[in-house]
Amino acid sequence: MAKTKALAPEISPLRTKSHTGWLQPPFIRCAVLAAKYGHPRMPSRPAIHRPQGSGAADRARATRDRERQALRPSPAERGYDDEWRVARKLHLLANPMCTVPSCTRSATDVDHVVSIAERPELRLDPSNFRSMCHEHHAQRTARDQGFARTGSLNAVNAPQRGASHPTWLGPSVVPITVVCGPPASGKSAFVQERAGARDLILDLDVIASMITMRPIYQAPASARDAALRWRNQHLKLCSIRRAWPSAWLIVSEPKAPWREWWATTLKPTRVVVIEAPADACLARIWADDRRPEMVKRVHADAVTQWWADYSRRDADVVLRPGHRPTTGLALSRT
What pLDDT does 4 receive? Predict the structure, then answer.
């Protein structure tokens, strides 16, 4: 108590006397002590617990983020160039209100009714445009690109679609072979006989099976979009770096213009077409126990449609059972 009395006159003139000695209101005492001795140093934020090895995990996450960003093409590569900006401005001038029912906001964005990836020829067609406010357009974009949750707040019912012919692909730096033909024509067997152990094989049936963890040909139809996106991401990787010795793309493509599109876009080493007769394909389909009955009917119809749509292209390597290739290109193991 004697020590407290000795310090009390020095601490503050605003002291009071009680039966226990010299006392000051707590806030005054703190202010006086801070003025004399300085404010204590307090942490600016709570400490963050970083377990051992978290630095490596952060670096790995950053690397994955950079790779995902590298996969995303530029706006011009996706079709949003100067011509699109002019068409967009003119459409907003003529249609200034959001077209979503019950929405009364002004339009800020122009949406493609059919995406550029699905119909690139309609990219600048005004009949394929619709005005939207930013909120509704963001909802539509999120659903199309597969990172939004569906719910009652979504005013535009648009499916999530993977592009069958993505316009943002570039020439592949990985030697790639495109193999075409009707269902059950032997495309997968052709590739398996020639692909190396470390080659990349892009077959939608196999990809859908891998994504859904179901037997081949038994993945639901809804898995096709995810399979297309997975395939397209790896095709984009093929245009960025040589991550595989070779790549093989298995597609149906009966029409010569679309095979020409793949040849122009990817710059493959060759485009192979397997002209397996329709009756042979149908026989394989109906004898294949891996295909459920409904899948057999769908694939059988696809064989008939493939031959109805088929047209040849001079640069293709055409294979027919019992015949030599129609070009001099070698088809030996790579």
Answer: 47
